[in-house]
Amino acid sequence: MIECRDPASLTKPDEKYLIVATHSGKFHADDVMCLALVSLFSSKPVVLIRTRDENVFSKCHMVLDVGNKDFYGKHHLRLDHHQTLEDYIVNGKVKSGTKDKLYYKNGLKKATCGKLADWMFLGISNSFLDFLRSKVLYCLEAKDNGVSIIGKINRDINGNPYPLGFVSLMNPSSQECKMYGTSIATRACFIKAEEMTKKILIRIIEEFEARENNNKILDEMIKEVSSQKVRYFINEGVPMSNLEEYIVSWNNSVSNKKRIISLMQRAFGEDDLWVVKTIAGYSIPLDWRNKDKLYLQKQSGYTSIQKVICNLAVFSDKTEAEDFVKKLANKK
């Protein structure tokens, strides 16, 4: 948790803390996200100072989202954004003045959150930075620069939902400002917004780590499948939601190799059920779809088949599911 102090309390830099300044007044998603990033990855306790006083900034280690200046130093960092629409592109071409379907090319590098992420994650994989950008930063910076999101809804150019729309709504009401004083009320609300934003960041990190772990496991499985030169894929571990997407991508990337035509894995949340799927248009017989078990058992010869929906068949017996996934693969 960050500590938000009155600017007047800061007399000199304190090396026990990481002292970060951002602008006073109404807070926005970008300055809240910056502080969440800093707080999450800082090795020191974070002290936040909300001010626009230049004299205070010299006593801080970081100054974020205040004034159109940039400075990268070993013990001091100052970052800002406020770029123009020329920093956005549409279909690979700059279009000044266009207000819809825009996204960053160089703009994100100039934006506070983008620069802070690059600076903080030196040595971290580019894939994580890209993942963080696709999940929140593209959309955040576009909104902060007055650019409408694609289709005028809360989704960015990648189709990702924008998760920080709540931040601006967390600024204190006029009644709260009157009761506690604007500065105190805003500091308290900022801390709450930062805590919620940090939880979102933690979920994004967990999602990225899970995806990377799944992809590592899948890479090993794919190598084994490729070496055996089979056209089916069996995942006996935890079911993976991106398994079919991964295999389709792999199929499209290989040349002069056998494509994977069918796959099998456990059903989600059902350890005693196995799902067989066909890939890339190879289908289970059309007359099996949405039929009852007796009909399916008679037609297929499998006593454990439970149901067939589109290109998916469910079995209660693993051996029969394995046999079926191999038969589908050998049809072509």
Outline:
The protein has 332 residues and is of the alpha/beta class. The chain has ten helices and 14 strands.
How does this model look, in words?
This protein is an alpha/beta fold. It has ten helices and 14 strands. It has two domains: 3-209, no CATH class; 229-329, no CATH class. α1 (29-41) links the parallel β2 and β3. α1 (29-41) packs parallel to α4 and α4 packs antiparallel against α5 (126-144).
What's the helix and strand layout?
Layout: E1 3-5, E2 18-22, H1 29-41, E3 46-50, H2 54-57, E4 62-64, E5 71-72, E6 77-79, E7 88-90, E8 93-94, E9 103-104, H3 107-110, H4 112-120, H5 126-144, H6 174-180, H7 182-228, E10 232-235, H8 243-253, E11 262-267, E12 270-278, H9 293-300, E13 305-309, E14 312-315, H10 318-329
Parallel strand pairs: 1-3, 2-3, 2-4, 4-6, 10-11
Antiparallel strand pairs: 5-6, 7-8, 7-9, 11-12, 12-14, 13-14
Helix pairs in contact: 1-4, 1-7, 4-5, 5-7, 6-7
Radius of gyration: 26 Å
Which range best describes the helical content: under 10%, 10-25%, 25-40%, 40-55%, 55-70% or over 70%? 40-55%
Compute the number of helices. 10
Strands side by side in the biggest sheet: 1-3-2-4-6-5
Shape: elongated
Order of helices and strands: EEHEHEEEEEEHHHHHEHEEHEEH
Using brief descriptors, characterize the structure shown.
40% helix; 332 residues; 10 helices; alpha/beta; six-stranded mixed beta sheet
